[in-house]
Amino acid sequence: SQQGEEDPQALSIQEGENATMNCSYKTSINNLQWYRQNSGRGLVHLILIRSNEREKHSGRLRVTLDTSKKSSSLLITASRAADTASYFCATGGGNKLTFGTGTQLKVEL
Amino acid sequence: DTEVTQTPKHLVMGMTNKKSLKCEQHMGHRAMYWYKQKAKKPPELMFVYSYEKLSINESVPSRFSPECPNSSLLNLHLHALQPEDSALYLCASSQDSGGGGNQPQHFGDGTRLSIL
Is B2 on the interface with A (CB under 8 A)? Predict the structure, then answer.
């Protein structure tokens, strides 16, 4: 069963704009991860945030985690056409990951 | 380039065929995973191997049979599949599964399987 729900399901922006994706989940977690999947490719790990962390940065990516609201957001700043992909949150607990429904991001020139 | 290699990239098979999907990693990871992904859907976990032993089977039908010959290799044997089994099959690895949910997973590019 899917742990996380993401919104929006699809997002279309212009190059240079910021993109924000949200993930909500249902049960307690040890950590939350974000992955990117380009069309026809496997998933690429972007960032992991632990349950005791509130914010984490990696390059143009900023992830926040609010465990009281069971939600996380991924912000991509100054987007590029190469950021066009599907983005999935994944909640970690026990010995497996459970992926959210995903957001399809399209960055147009 | 991904550090997890999956072969073949594409596979078309009939419902009576037997075939195998292969996955290889040389990162020294001790946990390996099989996922199934349908179009525009998230990956769904099928199996987890930890230190070459099957630790999770997510109630996968027996027509899918995993095998882990050594710490670098993971196979998925297919037999008598159904059309609804057509999907992208992804292999992943992580340092160990202690937790598999607590570490980044490295994915291959998958095998796109079509069942006729």
Answer: yes
